[in-house]
């Protein structure tokens, strides 16, 4: 069926088909509570990657994989001289993730591609869908690792050497699941990227807006802290003689939380903690925990970092525990490409949805890709702003709205090459 002239400028995505794809792929790592546990380069990740590759090939796309597992599905356009226009996000999830974080961006792109193919719509530029490896950074830190390799922020060796908490390396897992591809990272080029994503916060829902026109991503820094006290008997060791690593950690976690409140709209969090030996009647001798500081303004983030380091040093000294701290990730604040933001605005207007401009609190692959190609993002609401939670939810209508704006924006950008 070829698109009539009228429908050529008003291609409508298939809302039900997108929803079905979201629900179908949710079974890869699906949890009893209705979420998804699809840790990067796990067997579940392999299953969804295989599914994605097969669906793209059914559309006539070629699918390429680079050396860190990033996947690129490409549909040719009229002009071979033009770099592809990409739509991308990630298919990996948190251990207690939801059905939409990252997945909506990849499957929304697939739905846009399916719509183009259904209508036989030929774009000027080739169109691409990217699936970025290890966006979450949950199994292998840091986050956005392989879009970071693509953007030249990290080397492939650094990425391959990342170990999960059980000592397994990313590179070995990529080989094991068959996704350590032949292409050098960064060698598969595109001229622009649009990323559709759920907001993962409460603003759009609270304001009754359907679409977020995302202008940038806040700065993010991750740290690892190890405290070394002294294991001792909880019954026989007087309170004043203890070197309690967990007590020191508790005081530090509280101080970090206060730093977040002292620098709003910044945020400060401790998400991962390991207490050793974790025995009921042993004063904890060693604690490992992670710190996540974020702020839209780099100078404020510097202040938060300074206060964080001063606080933990004072608490360690007072608690007579050894302190090791290192910053393992620093992703500076990012502004997106005005010319692509303009396409998103055009796409929103064409679809007729209420929208608002906003910066992203969460990190996204777009933050790194913006370093090597014009990039921007499109948000849709999620229920109660909840994400990184098995109860993460949004509606079929909101998913469809996001995918429609994504397609409209991509075509608006494509028309600039006519
Ligand atoms: O940490 C983040 O903001 C993203 O979800 N990886
Ligand atoms: Mn995400
Ligand atoms: Mn996430």
How is the topology of this model organized?
Elements: H1 5-8, H2 15-25, H3 43-58, E1 62-65, E2 71-75, E3 85-89, H4 103-118, E4 127-131, H5 145-150, H6 156-161, H7 170-176, E5 192-198, H8 203-207, E6 211-217, E7 219-228, E8 232-233, H9 245-262, E9 267-269, E10 273-276, E11 282-283, E12 286-295, H10 298-319, E13 322-331, E14 334-335, H11 338-351, E15 355-360, H12 365-369, E16 375-380, H13 396-415
Parallel strand pairs: 3-4, 3-5, 5-16, 6-15
Antiparallel strand pairs: 1-2, 2-4, 6-14, 6-16, 7-12, 7-13, 8-11, 9-12, 10-12
(2S)-amino(hydroxy)ethanoic acid binds at residues 135-137, 143, 362-363.
Describe this structure in words.
Strands 1, 2, 3, 4, 5, 6, 14, 15 and 16 form a nine-stranded mixed β-sheet that branches. By secondary structure, the protein is α+β, with helices and mostly antiparallel strands. The protein has two domains: 3-218 and 333-415, Aminopeptidase; 220-331, Alpha-Beta Plaits, CATH 3.30.70.360. Helix 4 (103-118) links the parallel strand 3 and strand 4. The longest helix has 22 residues, at 298-319. The chain is 36% helix and 21% strand. Residues 135-137, 143, 362-363 line the site of (2S)-amino(hydroxy)ethanoic acid.
List keywords for this structure.
elongated, Aminopeptidase, disordered N terminus, binds manganese (II) ion, 2 domains, 5-stranded antiparallel beta sheet, 13 helices, binds (2S)-amino(hydroxy)ethanoic acid, 418 residues, Alpha-Beta Plaits, alpha+beta
